[in-house]
Amino acid sequence: MGETSSVENEFDDWFIESLKIYNNIHEYQLEHPTRVIEWTSEKTICVAGYSSDKNEILELLLPLKLFTDDNQGLCAERDFKVVHGGFSDGSIHCLKHIPGTRYIIVAIDYVTSFCCHELSSSNCCFLLRCVVTNDGFNSNLQVWDLGGEDCDVIKRTGVLQLKSASSDKGVKIAPGLTGDPCVLHGSQISDIQLTELTSGKPLYSLGKDIPDLLSSLQFVSGSVFLACACNGDLYVGDTRNPSGLQNNPAGGREGVHWCMGVKTDLSSSDPSSCSVARLSSACQVVVSDLRDLRAPLFQAQLHVQRKTTSDDFMKVTWAPALDNCLAVSGFDGMVRIYDTASWRPELMEFQPLFIHRGHMMSDDQFDTSSAVVTTHVWHPSRPRTVLSAAVDGSVHVWDWVDKATASC
Amino acid sequence: MAREVRCKTVEEPSLVALAKTHAATPSFKNKTASGSHLSNVHLCISSSCFLSGAGQDVGRSCILVSIGGKNIMLDCGMHMGFNDDRRFPDFSYITQQGRLTEFLDCVIISHFHLDHCGALPYMSEMVGYDGPIYMTHPTKAICPILLEDFRKITVDKKGETNFFTSQMIKDCMKKVVPLNLHQTVQVDDELEIKAYYAGHVLGAAMVQIKVGSESVVYTGDYNMTPDRHLGAAWIDKCRPDILISESTYATTIRDSKRCRERDFLKKVHETVERGGKVLIPVFALGRAQELCILLETFWERMNMKAPIYFSTGLTEKANHYYKLFITWTNQKIRKTFVQRNMFEFKHIKAFDRSYADNPGPMVVFATPGMLHAGQSLQIFKKWAGNEKNMIIMPGYCVQGTIGHKILNGQKKLEMENRQTVIEIERCEPGCCHLSLEVKLQVEYMSFSAHADAKGIMQLIRMAEPRNMLLVHGEAKKMEFLKDKIEQEFTINCFMPANGETTTVITNPSVPVDISLNLLKREMALGGPLPDPKKPRTMHGTLIMKDNSLRLVSPEQALKELGLNEHQLRFTCRVQLQDPHSDPDTLSRIYTHLKSVLKGYTIQHLPDGTVMVESIVIKVSSSAEEPNTKVLLLSWSYQDEDLGSFLSTLLKKGLPSGLSSM
């Protein structure tokens, strides 16, 4: 009894605190958890399930209340609208929208029932990493049409079979930024390939035999892309020049998993201005820029008590509309926002600017130990608005109060 | 015919769902003619139109169900967006003229919201219906108050005619029969209804309608997540043939209650902190109590000192209702009520008219909720001119009310009412058009509790219907949900639009009682022991009497029905080429049958006949053609199987090697 009330107290304390620390917060409960949140337009996002068999892909319209600045009080609309939905037979670990189209590209993992049984008992996150199938192919990439006004069903329009998908890890995708719809994909550095969506024709492939597993992939301009290997190595490639691949070993340590977040400024034609943040499973962040990827501009040790042994949900992102800020999640039930302005070249511990603890304050089952954030994304233009999802199926949209401006 | 058995043909059972708006449909009229249909359900969705009013969808519910020859009207709602005839359902396609009484067996109202009960007095008193109207106790208590409020706005304020009167509301309510939760009510010998808890608002119910083995569940509006004063909707695994669910929010994923409450607290907190006054116009029951509990719970924790008031009179009235309807609230409130009155608040005090002029911050809950009259309007007029103040509208407002106007962003209000002259002191002297400038902050917050896509799935999982019918949604936007329901539950999902007809085939099981004697007799005949998984043929007589089906032995049927047994014999001639004398042929037949029919009683009688059980066989031939034998077979109706077998057997002729003995 006493325990319940202390839990309730903690819950209520956070509730009261939330009045002061958030301008807006919306909490939604999906039927199935998602590990992808992808913007498909200014006001819509895509989420998708990652369970072993039947999954849904949903395109959600964000509530009007989030977009009305004048007279916000008169707008009572605060629900997500499911504008389009579809069914997928595999687990979706990666989903990207092709800019300027109604297409999304999805990396699907098929998991045999054998793997399910073996792995689901240890940790559901592991399930995604295992992509053994009965029918001879591993992951595949699927193109889905989100559909228009006349129908709310998302339909699969094509499958890109990956001839060289030799690894048992999920494929990473990066949609092309300019020109005809195309997609860069791969599961290892050596697999990386640019495929034209309409024809399925490979436009570029890397001629190098580097078997390192790929953890993140992103274009920084029309042709230049960045690839981060799981061991922390960074590669800079150019789709116009298959032979030119620049390797920047990060001195990644054994047994440590790395992922990357890139801040691109698409308005500037010079890709060298973009900042790259690499996050390690040892909770370190190393920031560098394209001019010299070898030497860290600055770095930080994050104070995080890991609640999961899986590296699957690790994510670091730069705020698109807020200088020097990045968000980190995937270690526990929190999303942490850091201001890198005070960081230094030497490794030091830094405190976050803001912590979103909402996913640990679930209404139904208060269980702080099991809550793990699966993914987060920034709102493209509202500086302090972030969307985050957790393993319990919760999706939060929050907009925190900037203490600096609030106090003056 | 040997005997007479009363048995009507039972047509292939089918469920038909119809959705029509205009053309008068005869299918609903032939109540008497449909008596022979054991299991027909017609569903006529009279309307499902929507308008967007200040961000909230409000439609009109009125569904007609015909099940097993019984006609039931589910809800009788008013469309809040129209000011003309279109606001009421078009009853002309039930009947072109005359009263509805003869066409309807009963009317059921799910809850007290006007889009579900607003047309009730019009239907019963102006169109004409004298049969029973079922609703729960709380709905029965609250519904007339809301109807009277609405009538006042429409007739007294807007000056409309052709509307129902106060007396009509009273007369209509006299026809109401109250329902208790989970109590099965027998409307007549065949039709029964049962109410289930729906959450949503105080007294909201889902209803199960049952005729024989067929049933329909209608949800009304429901909520699958409990809130501060109501529980979540619940239904048992009743496996109805059709589950009719509202789907207004079917394509939404609802923001959590907690965040809605947080926003409410945040607004109140901000206003009080800056020294402003907060007015919350509410209806006396429901949302008011929920928000009071919320403020009461967090007032101290938020370090708030400002007073909170609740309109006088309301507290007592509301407490009275909640005492009566305590079973309709959630568990926590029910538990607390044992110790003390849940609605006796520590921080919330009774309001006095004079308090409105007190300086400093305060929070006031006042009625009515739509600012059309009374205390809430008076306070609003006093506070509207100060931008530090705030008004929070927690619910929907009908057209023509001040509430509706300010929710649409109107900043200047014309006050045509004479009384306001005295009250509006801020008016410039000499100004003849009295207008009120709205400077205070207006906040619209929806706390309405409806099932979203997940809630609909949860309810289907609970009730396990054989077919699903979604009403009130936009079919084009619900294809995905339909696919999802059909895939997950392997049932059909229908979304009838206006004017669309849906037909559903069902397989109702028809229970038949078998007499013990008949069973014993079957057992005595031997054969394998009865196995529930294997069908077995047996003979008997089906009696349909007093709404029951029984299978008995023919003897018993004759006895019960007082009938004499008639003998029915079949005779058949079989020609046979057999170059023997007639007696020899008969002997050869005897030998043949003896060898073929083992275990049957076969006798060669001295009168020149062979008897197989009761079947008589004689042989004759003409003098001209002595080798052409004519076999005469005769058997009674009861031995039809054996008789037919013998005639077929003998037509094949006799084997050559038979001795004639």
Rg of chain B to the nearest angstrom? 37 Å
In angstroms, what separates the terminal alpha carbons of chain B? 41 Å
Enumerate the spans of chain A where pLDDT stays under 50 for 5 or more consecutive residues. 111-138
Beta-strand portion of chain A reads 35-45%
By secondary-structure content and strand pairing, the structural class of chain A works out as: mainly beta
Which terms would index this structure?
A: 408 residues, mainly beta, five-stranded mixed sheet, 29 strands, 8% helix, B: 661 residues, alpha/beta, seven-stranded mixed sheet, six-stranded mixed sheet, 34 strands, 23% strand, disordered N terminus, IntS11_C (chain B), metal ion binding (chain B), metal-binding (chain B), nucleus (chain B)
Structure overview:
Chain B: GO terms for molecular function: hydrolase activity; metal ion binding; RNA endonuclease activity. The complex is a heterodimer of chains A (408) and B (661). With 408 residues, chain A is mainly beta. Chain A has helices at 2-21, 113-120, 403-407; strands at 22-29, 34-39, 44-49, 55-61, 80-88, 91-97, 103-109, 140-145, 155-160, 172-175, 182-186, 193-196, 202-205, 214-219, 224-229, 234-238, 245-248, 258-263, 275-280, 284-289, 298-302, 315-318, 325-329, 335-339, 348-350, 354-356, 373-378, 385-390, 394-400. A 5-stranded mixed sheet of chain A has the order 18-19-20-21-25, with no helix packed on it. Chain A is globular. Chain A starts with a helix and ends with a helix. Chain B is an alpha/beta fold and 661 residues long. Chain B is 27% helix and 23% strand. In chain B, the strands form 8 sheets. Chain B has a 7-stranded mixed sheet with strand order 10-11-12-13-14-24-25, with helices on one face. Residues 1-58 and 418-433 of chain B have low confidence and may be disordered. The A-B interface holds A 12, 15-16, 18-19, 24-31, 54, 56, 60, 63-64, 71, 73-87, 150-154, 363 and B 54-56, 249, 251-256, 258-260, 262-263, 265-267, 269, 298, 301-302, 407-409, 441-446, 452-454, 457, 476-481, 483-484, 487.
